[in-house]
Design goal:
single chain; Rossmann fold; 18 helices; alpha/beta; 11% strand; 8-stranded mixed β-sheet
């Protein structure tokens, strides 16, 4: 009898261990954050484009302002709006890659359709490489109109707005669209605008360490590339486009190039080329995951990238602090506008410790769960620091990323959605 009881107990223990082992294995395979992002990209394939995701907002949000406080200053940094793709070889390369398979008889009917869509994109893009699109202009006009409507007391007759832009034409055009919208709301505004070499050390600055992430060989890049070679094969999508995907040389590069062409379609007007609809949802997730990590490694608080990106935002953050102090002392205009690029906004967000941008991670899988580029810097992304003051001279700040409230890690709120300027200043000065 004792022996039977011991055997029964042992069997139960083995069963329990088996169930726990199975659970552990499932937990390693299925992560709830991974699944949530998968669902999100499946519902909105354009998000797989990451930094090419067209600005998704048409309204803004601001936490309830504490009683007695009024806005006195805005510091703004805006990424340029939607644009044509910046590579002058991408479309031609992708056409050649697909044409090669067509001539070999390896394209399916869907593959032939996609080839024609890529040709259409090539013709549409010709002569417009990296150029701000009309959609990009509208995005900045929309942000400007909402800013004016939300804070009209900062745009009174005769008030001066200072606007500075990166010297890249799409940034200058974004600034022009923004300024034009403000002037339409109040023609008596004075707007001083600049695109000077001296401002580039603030608006678009690279330290040597940040540059090295792009060029210098580093061990983590080898591991990253191997992982991406697997992620970018897009085997389900490839099976839809090619009769025999195994015959396609460097399939991972062909599929990555095709995705690059497809993800930019959302950023221009007048182009009917629904390339992303031919991609399997899981393949879109894999493509995003690899390209998202490339951005994170370069510009986030990445262990692999040694946080070199955020450290290069020091000049930018110092300029924001100094100009805010001067404005609050009455020595500068009520509104400071800067127009630049996603790279420098990503770095600034991480350096400021904006939640959602400041997590430290290593490797593609871990990074994708804590840092999603399409949430941070879609086309026309913007960060607004709005200072409010009461009659007692207290100064508080609301921060908005893409016109939505964000929090700063490690700083106590004065009120929901607001921080004391002195607390933020102290943190950022350290």
């Amino acid at each position: 009898m004792k022996r039977l009881i011991l055997i029964t107990i042992a069997a139960m223990m083995l069963t329990s261990l088996g169930v726990n082992a199975k659970k552990t294995k499932q937990q390693k395979i299925v992560n709830p954050v991974d699944m949530e992002i998968r669902k999100e990209i499946a519902a909105t394939p354009e998000k797989s484009g990451g930094i090419y995701y067209a600005y998704p907002y048409t309204s803004d949000s601001l936490p309830s302002v504490p009683a007695g406080f009024k806005p006195v200053y805005i510091s703004h940094y805006g990424r340029h709006g939607s644009r044509w793709h910046s590579s002058d070889t991408l479309h031609e390369t992708t056409v050649k890659e697909l044409n090669k398979e067509f001539k070999a008889g390896n394209l399916t009917k869907d593959g032939e359709t996609v080839l024609n869509l890529v040709k259409r994109c090539r013709e549409h893009t010709r002569g417009h490489i990296g150029e701000l699109s009309k959609l990009g202009e509208r995005q900045h006009r929309g942000v400007a109109n909402r800013m004016f409507a939300r804070f009209p007391m900062l745009f009174n007759n005769g008030d001066t707005v200072v606007a500075r832009a990166s010297q890249v034409p799409r940034c200058i055009m974004s600034m022009a669209a923004f300024n034009e919208a403000l002037k339409e709301n109040n023609p008596r505004l004075v707007i001083d605008h600049y695109a000077t070499p001296g401002d580039m050390d603030i608006i678009a600055y690279h330290t040597k360490a940040a540059k090295a992430i792009y060029k210098k060989h580093q061990p983590w890049k080898t591991d990253y590339q191997k992982k991406c070679d697997s992620l970018y094969r897009c085997e389900k999508t490839a099976a839809r486009l090619f009769k025999n995907p195994e015959k396609v040389q460097k399939l991972n590069k062909v599929m990555s190039h095709l995705h690059e062409v497809g993800m930019d379609v959302q950023d221009v007007d007048g182009l009917e080329a629904p390339i992303l609809t031919y991609f399997d949802a899981e393949d879109l997730y894999s493509l995003w995951k690899g390209k998202n990590y490339q951005q994170y490694g370069r510009h986030g608080k990445s262990i692999d990238g040694k946080s070199a990106g955020p450290e290069s935002a020091e000049n930018h953050l110092k300029d924001i602090i100094d100009r805010t102090d001067d404005a609050l002392a009455g020595n500068l205009p009520k509104v400071d506008l800067r127009f630049g690029h996603d790279v420098f906004l990503m770095r600034l967000l991480a350096r400021m410790d904006v939640e959602g941008s400041n997590a430290t991670a290593q490797g593609i899988d871990e990074a994708s769960r804590v840092w999603q580029d399409f949430r941070l810097t879609p086309m026309a992304a913007n960060l607004q620091l709005v200072v409010f003051r009461n009659n007692a001279g207290d100064e508080i700040v609301a921060l908005r990323l893409n016109e939505q409230p964000v929090k700063i890690s490690g700083v106590k709120e004065y009120a929901p959605g607001y921080y004391r300027w002195s607390d933020l200043r102290t943190k950022w000065k350290k």
